[in-house]
Amino acid sequence: MKYLSFLLLMWVTFDSWGNSANAAEAPATEAQKQFVERVAPVLAAKCVACHRADNLKGNFDLTTRAGVLRGGDGGAAVEPGKPLASPLYTRAIPQDGAKPEMPEKGEPLSTAEADALREWIAAGAPWPENFVLREKAKADASFWSFQPLAKVDPPTNADPPPGWNDNPIDRFVLAKLREHGLEPNPPADPATLIRRVTYDLHGLPPTVENVKEWEEKLNAESRKLKEASLRDSSAFSSLLSALLSSPRYGEHWGRHWLDVIRFGESRGYERNEIITNLWPFRDYVIRSFNDDKPFDQLVREHLAGDVIGKDQPDVEIGSAFLVAGPYDDVGNQDPVAAAQIRADQMDEMIRATGEAFLGLTIGCARCHDHKFDPLLSQDYYALYATFAGTFHGARDVATSSARAERQAKLAPLEAARTELSKARADLERELNERAQQRESAAVPSWTRPRISRYGTEETFTPLTAKFVRMTVDGTDGDDEKTKNFRLDEFEIWTDEAEPRNVALAVNGGQAQGASRDAKDFAAAYGASLTIDGKFGERWLSTGPTLTIELKQPERIRRVFFSSDRPRALAEDYGLTVFVGDYSIEVSSDGREWREVANSADRAPPSKLRKRDRLLKLVTTDDDRERLAEFGRRQKEVDAQIAAVPLLPLWWVGNHRAAPGPFQVFIGGNPQRKGDTVLPASLRVLADRASPYQLDAQQDEAARRLALANWITAPDNPLTARVLVNRIWHYHFGKGIVDTPSDFGYMGSRPTHPELLDWLAAELIRGGWKWKPIHRLILSSATYQQSSTWREAASRQDGDSRLLWRFPPRRLTAEEVRDALLSVAGKLNLRMGGPGFKLYEYLQDNVATYVPLDVHGPETYRRAVYHHNARAARTDLMTDFDCPDPAAAEPRRASTVTPLQALTLMNHRFALDMTMAFAERLKHDAPTSADQVRRAFQIAYAREPVDAELSAALRLIETHGLRAFCRAMLNSNELIHVN
Questions:
Q1: 3-state secondary structure of 841
Q2: Under 8 Å between Cβ of 188 and 806
Q3: What span, in angstroms and rounded, lies between the C-alpha atoms of 37 and 140?
Q4: What is the per-residue burial (b if ≥16 Cβ within 10 Å, else e) of 402-434?
Q5: Is the per-residue pLDDT at 7 higher than 60?
Q6: For residue 50, which of 7, 237, 496, 791 sits 20 to 30 Å off, Cα-Cα?
Q7: How far is CA 3 from the centre of its chain?
Q8: pLDDT tens, residue by residue, 69-127
Q9: Which residues lie below 8 Å from residue 562, measured CB to CB, with a gap of 6+?
Q10: b/e map of 580-611 (b: 16 or more CB within 10 Å)?
């Protein structure tokens, strides 16, 4: 009974984390115990879904005794000791034979359940202290993925096929096959296996030379071996060693991991600005795979690299994982909206962490307890508290010695700049004092009112001109940094009985002036907006002059200009910042100019403009020379400072103190605060993995480190299972669990649960290194069997989940592109550094990524080095299902669409590779027949059969070598692996 009580309390209630064992003893009386065992499970299953803090139907919260006694819109729900006066009971039982009012949906209470409810109320509605009702999830702590790793021995199979008896993987797989009446395929031929394993580990086709070398070795050894499998082949072992030790391995498998952790090099959301300094993290991932870094260490570095790798940039960069996802950088100033945006940022980190390392959809507990998995909102917000000090952005990443060396160089220069700034400030203070003394004398000369953004007019003696120029000194604001003003219209009126605005573009006017550059919309802010006759859009100046050229010389006498003609906004609104002081000049030829008006006699539009006017009155030539000298000297010092190399600035996030307190957001709403939470591990694993809970005094670094250590603890059953399943997934196309980031109730169940646990234990036993697991899998007869389709077996297991054959696959998008480059002989294997772009980046308020039609040689690197921006279409790779990194993609799609064929057939990149392939064949082989054989060796790792050779020669004779190469690059065999 005590065990039953514990289970009920684990899923229906929680006291406080860390006291769950004591919570099992919470019912202090027999009546409380009966409530926990008989009543609470019924209420949790049938009532709590509609009556809890985040879903208050009838304003009734049933989860606590206080809520029950308080009731909802209809008053108290329970009258202790009086069942018939308690709506919770009376509305849950039939009345006059009618269906009970509650619950509205689902099965009503059974007779036994209703009796238990009545007895509880009659006993005074006893309720254990701190007891909270919770809706029960579909799964509980007994669910398979939360169980400790099982200690299993590989099964023994009677009369196994040759080569299927020794590798433990084969023993597990064969046993499962035979459970379903299936037998495996025979082994693949050496050439097929070489091509398969090379693509598998490198994502590239094997070279002709490698195929020949290893095929000869494998054939020679296979003749010596009694068994048909190459499992015992030292040559195959050597091949694996060569492939695993190549830097190509880290590039390919690092790309897999970047999918899992949603690595993207732009910010996402509507602005989606590019991030240019996250590539060191991509290189770190590739380097970690090549070095076979223990994966528990990699996980710890992802979560707390800045903590455990202090003074080690190559480790600290690992924590960029936390900020490698999309985030909203609009910067909303409304506090409610800002809080929601911040909650969304936290949610992205929490989901990425839970799915990548634990295979759990923890994000589903953001608004309420998880409906399917035993995860509580408190679990979610414990992670929220853990990550609360992490913010997106870049910062210096360098060793302390590098920082000290740079500071030693900067110190004397910064001292010199400080001295210059002080001397200049002293002079400017003196000038300002003089200027203030002249104010009373200057004010009477400002006879006209200040300019107005709603419309400012200047009239002058009529004259004939073809050009009108306005030169502006500053703006009408008091921000010294702002030099750029805005105009919605600039009108030039003729001296006629019925004046005409001859500046208008429809009247032949043309406007010129430096403008803010919007590359995605060239005319968005141009000077032409000042003469379009409309007031909704404005010219955004980046220079001091606006010049209007008229269609022909005109006799003019007035100009009128504004930045908010419709008076839609307040005079001081930032969107309509206007000209400051100005002068108006005219010209007949655009070379000789005559001033006709200025603002000198207007009241200054701002304190800044007034100050500048007064300074001009009191500043002498000597003063100007001294100011110029200060400027020259400061410019020299600034240049010397700029010449000191900067410390590396990487997008690794910034970490700040986050003292809390932290609370559950009821319904996921930051404005509705619930129970206080502390940074802690998942409660469902409180008795099965190394649990932790930190007090409120622990800093944010300690929180992340505690989480990292808990996730990688050997007794955490999730992490090792998730990681080995990912390895299996990429080798066979599907994992033992084919929902690799969801090991919960809504995910798939493992096809080979014993094998999964055995592999997870092997990963831990081997120090969390992946390369030994690769070797174990690739050396198995399961992996080495052929992909031949068998009708009878397919009726039993159509997608080969039980692995009666090796599942053939289409290449991923990156592999397709890399393969085309490799076959054409154009692949540049330079590693690391900033990525290349297959788009033109245009940025103004929002970013635009325009796919390139021409891919130059600078783009001929491996696709993993492409600058992987969000919402950036990249033609071939997008067409072949390269995912958008707006979200993690642990399991890529593999579609068949017309666009794929059209792209391979007609895209400029594909045509360029066709030409390069033809040139390579001409260089390598003298005759058409030799060129065909060479092409098959390069593209397919095999020789052509006679029929293929004949058909190819006929094609070359009729349409030329390029047509043959184009056909090869468009063939299914090139982009599929058997």
A1: strand
A2: yes
A3: 17
A4: beeebeeeeeebeebbeebeeebeeeeeebeee
A5: no
A6: 7
A7: 44
A8: 788 887 888 888 887 888 887 777 777 667 787 787 777 878 888 888 888 888 888 88
A9: 452, 453, 454, 455, 456, 487, 488, 489, 535, 578
A10: bbbbbbbbeeeeebeebbbbeebebbbebbbb
Per-position DSSP letters for 253-303, written without gaps between them: HHHHHHHHTT--SB--TTT--B-SS-HHHHHHHHHHHHTT--HHHHHHHHH
- Res 392 pLDDT > 70: yes
- The type of residue at 170 is D
Q: Specify whether the CB–CB gap between 949 and 929 falls below 8 A.
A: yes
Distances (CA, A) of 599 to 162, 482, 495, 585: 98, 19, 22, 12
CA nearest to 369, candidates 145, 136, 147, 139: 136
Q: Are 322 and 294 spatial neighbours (Cβ–Cβ below 8 Å)?
A: no
CA angle 903, 908, 910 (to 5 degrees): 60
**DSSP of 602-626, one letter per residue?**
BPPSSHHHHHHHHHHHH--HHHHHH
Contact 120, 35 (CB under 8 A): yes
Lowest mean pLDDT across 77-86, 126-135, 760-769:
126-135
Please report, rounded to a whole number, the percentage of residues in the chain having pLDDT higher than 90: 77
- Helix pair 400-442, 621-643: axis angle to 10 deg: 160
Report whether pLDDT(703) > 50: yes
pLDDT band (50, 70, 90) for residue 33 = confident
Say how far apart CA 148 and CA 718 lie, in whole Å.
9
pLDDT at 408 over 70: yes
- Other residues' Cβ atoms within 10 Å of the Cβ of residue 461: 7
CB–CB of 31/21 below 8 Å? no
Query: What does the pLDDT read at residue 100?
Result: 81
Determine the straight-line distance between the first and last CA of the chain, rounded to whole angstroms: 57
- For 476-526, what is each residue's pLDDT tens digit? 998 887 789 999 999 999 999 999 999 999 999 999 999 988 776 767 899
Q: What are phi and psi of 862, to 5 degrees?
A: -60, 145
